Amino acid sequence: MAHPIPPVDDTAPALCGQGRELVRDVLERIGDKWSVVIICQLGHTTKRFNELRRLSEPITQRMLSATLQGLERDGLVTRTLRDTKPLRVDYALTPRGLSLLAVAQNLARWAVDNAAGIQDSRTAFDAR
Amino acid sequence: MAHPIPPVDDTAPALCGQGRELVRDVLERIGDKWSVVIICQLGHTTKRFNELRRLSEPITQRMLSATLQGLERDGLVTRTLRDTKPLRVDYALTPRGLSLLAVAQNLARWAVDNAAGIQDSRTAFDAR
DNA sequence: CAGAATCCGACACGATACTG
DNA sequence: CAGTATCGTGTCGGATTCTG
Asked: Which UniProt keywords are listed (chains A, B) (predicted)?
């Protein structure tokens, strides 16, 4: 395992009691098909709609729009309308969005570290 | 913000290039309705089917069964069949499952820390 | 350029009933 | 006790078309 992952906190009530629904809420937010992709593509630099569209291929206009609205609704991205000659809209992460990006990067590390192992387990399991 | 969250790594290619699909895979694994709940309920102690069922209410038999099979397929939990008088099956997290639990707890902390703020942003956004 | 509106198929999930 | 089988439904998301 290439990267250190914090040891499991044995007394982690956050995941079980009241926190269970909270965690579910978060997973419903970032568990959809595109939210994490958008968050990662935004990163620290503000980007425009079609710019995000190209970077996040093969996302559709509809889903990009919907995803951005959802993220804006939750205070994770800001949408600023520049009133220039051709219409122009800038999207950027809020501080809260940036903190979520950090969490997502943890997830990404785990994903990269375990992707191969999971794939092996999967094919082994399916072989029966 | 009560808990420290590691600062954003600016050079995080894992999330963008090849890693993007990997992260999507992981989110498809834990993004369903019950996987994280089960993983958290298992924690460090092995548990039986109906035990998990009660702890994870209001999960249905069908979804518990399906979720456990998915987790087993990915090498996140082990299923051991004890051949006692009334049938008995024990489930436990594998090392890989435990490492995922740690990641999930990060997520949980973020969820707890930001739940209120997100709720505020949401109602503010919906007020228009 | 940045979207909204509509249509539609796939699949996730719940409810219920049955089995070894 | 520990599941499987079947059915019905809501919703997510893709394809396509239209607007300011």
From this structure: DNA-binding, Transcription, Transcription regulation
